[in-house]
Amino acid sequence: MLRGIREQPEEIPQPAPREIFQERQKITGLPLYFQGYLSVRHSRCQEFRVYWTELRGTTLFFYDDKKARTYSQKLDISSLTSATNVHPDENSSAQFILMLSNGELELKANNCECGKEWKGFILTVTKLSVPPDESLLPGQLTRMHEVLEKEKKRRTMPNDCSSTPLNRKSPPSSPLTTMPACFYAVSRQEAIKMLEKNPSCGNLILRPGSDSKNYAITIRQKLDAPCLKHYKVMSKGTSYVIELERQVTLPSLQDVVNYFVNQTRGNLKPFVMTHAAEDPVF
User: Fold this and answer.
1) Would the pTM of this model clear 0.90, i.e. be above it?
2) Which domain holds residue 106?
């Protein structure tokens, strides 16, 4: 059992609405190509959930609402193999499915025109080609061609540095692409909410700390009753120090996650919201 917990100070208040765009730009350097509301459902789940969604590079960022400062989850769609046709349902919404290498993701837009736009931009950035859809309007095709050129240019950048976050949500020395699968750029309260709502996805989240250099671990264990705990993880040069009664120094954040898993003999499991999860969040 892990002891010696050192609680972190409260997270800073959410910014005013006019600051939201700037805050999101600091979370990741990935360029914003398209955004809007989408209903999302994973192939293993029964219900759709509505998110304010951003297409940045080849990643979909899902926000609980339009004014949320940080995303609640994200999905890399670079492994897209194909997408079904957009078709209306009984509520006049437009549905289509993304076939990824690790599963399927069903998306629903407000109407067919919006659905075709989403599908068009997604295919443009993943296939590096504007889809030959005669139902797309000239203005939509023009924007897709502009996005295509931006995405081609982004991929030629050294080390694809555009994916590196620029603020406290993930320090510059640790790009999101090298983060453990259980890392999410969320606050303490958002991490608690994720763990409580999706217990089958895991019970350990690695998240940003309250400053620009460090991290935190949030866990949820079921003992006599559900118990939430938070551990500070300090960045020390090329190593990471877990703040326990007896400090533990490890060479990587993945080793930090593995330490918690091993010390609890597998009772703690990294929180992962991919198709491989036993009961995905979607």
Assistant:
1) no
2) 30-163
